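Sequence, structure tokens reproduced for absentees:
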Amino acid sequence: MAKTFPAAHLRQTVAAIVAAAGSERAEAQTVADNLVLANLSGHDSHGVGMVPRYIDAVLEGGLKPNTGIAVKLDGVSLLALDGQRGYGQVVGEQAMTLAVARAEASGSCVMALANAHHLGRIGHFAEMAVARGLVAIHFVNVQSRPVVAPWGGGDGRYGTNPFCVGIPLQGREPFVLDFATSRVAQGKMRVAHNEGRRVEPGYLIDEKGQPTTDPGVVVVPQPGGMFGALMAFGEHKGYGMAVACELLGGALSGSGTWHRPADNQRAVINGMLAILVNPEQLGTQASFAQEALAFVDWLKQSPGDVLLAGEPERKARQTRAHEGITLDDQTWAEIVAAGAKLGARVA
């Protein structure tokens, strides 16, 4: 079973729960808007279904409401920032606002953000950059229970480690490539498990290192308290990119990498290295705009239905803004229970 909600209702509901957990009104609304936008974009894995985990993380002390970024280094086109375990939706926007301003002024900016709580859909931050005509590249690592197996390995050793690129296209909607370096995002396995669905072969191994189609192996403890693991996309290639995200988003950013046994903490800590480039100041703006459009048009001339990264999300936003956002009963029950922990009634 499932329920369908207007986006406005979910924004109001999530904002009320986050506020009950201690966030000021503006912060609660920012978190709610960001999560609902992920649902509208078709990425339920990064949407309102994360609320129960966020509330658990606040109650455990791993997520700190009303906490903004701290500037560790301001080198104009180099920024080192610390999210101080604040809401990723908030500190991520603060960090990108600074980085965008520097790239507009000086032509480029390399921004390192450490210790942000779950940043959510990284494409949102790329969209902030491309809206200002900037190119953006993001490497992100995830410090939480390790859920992805290295290529050739048999258990989880690192997180889903997203990679994202945003590229403005003159007079067109931007190219926004945003993906987990695992075959599929962990949150999508949570959604599949809540819906009682099996997943495609090749996504998962169980707690014994054997292939499985049961998403529950990475969502709930298996016999003996063990978990299975997600597989890397593209075999050794996706694995290599995941390691790059860990080393750049985690080690170089100052956020840290995962190299310890799993625990039961609910916080999800992200580190991000973002590289922003202003094509106008690079001196290639004219050829960039011309060649980018020529290539995109060339792709679109291929027989069939050719899409560019970012198009499915924009289409989903139009559809779901009109038809509403559907949540399975288990996900909705978890959101209601999260509100109840804080004395917030959810209708």
User: Anything to note?
Assistant: The mean pLDDT is 97. The domain at 183-231 is CATH 3.30.60.50 (Wheat Germ Agglutinin (Isolectin 2); domain 1).
